[in-house]
Write a structure and sequence with these properties.
The protein has 160 residues and is an alpha/beta fold. The protein is built from six helices and five strands. The protein is 40% helix and 21% strand.
């Protein structure tokens, strides 16, 4: 089985993340969207909310699962016996950052090679980031075009 882990904070999931997962589904038998929890970090949405947004967003995708983990992504991949990490690339800054992480991960997994697979984001989604969405939510701007319906509904309920 070809399984990929798509790791990230997903605070919250955006249409950019959705684009990457949707386009990756034909490439893998299963994709696990895995929320990496860092106890030092402050999040806008709780882990439960972020998992719920992802679950609702991919409810019609039988091969997409949601999970969460603490610690290193590669340790999580080893524990799940997964050989692929999926990441999205928006711009040269993403590339530089991701290159360092992917090469480090290869060094750290010598006898159990994990390959990182990158998909270029669609042009129409390449400007979207969770941090911009959080900024727009905080200051009352129009976030509706940037996030999936599950996030829109929850944000409305929370008064954003
Ligand atoms: P992190 O906290 O690791 O940056 P994110 O939740 O922001 O996690 O992103 C997870 C993955 O999704 C990363 O590979 C990132 O490059 C990708 N990504 C984020 N936004 C977009 C977008 N608009 N288009 C494509 N990929 C994206």
């Amino acid at each position: 089985m070809k399984i990929a882990v798509f790791p990230g904070s997903f605070d919250p999931i955006t249409l950019g993340h959705f684009d990457i997962v949707e386009r990756a589904t034909p490439l893998f038998d299963k994709i696990i969207i895995a929320i990496g929890q860092n106890s030092q970090k402050k999040y806008m949405f709780s882990l439960e909310q972020r998992m719920d947004f992802i679950r609702r967003t991919f409810k019609d995708f039988p091969n997409v699962e949601v999970d969460h983990f603490e610690g290193l992504t590669i340790d999580y991949c080893h524990s799940k016996k997964v050989s692929f990490i999926l990441r999205g690339l928006r711009n040269p800054a993403d590339f530089e950052f991701e290159k360092a992480i992917a090469q480090t991960n290869r060094e750290l997994t010598q006898d159990n090679k994990i390959e990182t697979i990158f998909l270029l984001t669609s042009a129409s989604k390449s400007f979207i980031s969770s941090s911009i969405v959080r900024e727009i939510l905080t200051f009352g701007g129009h976030y509706e075009l940037l996030v999936p319906e599950a996030v829109r509904v929850a944000a409305k309920k929370q008064g954003f």
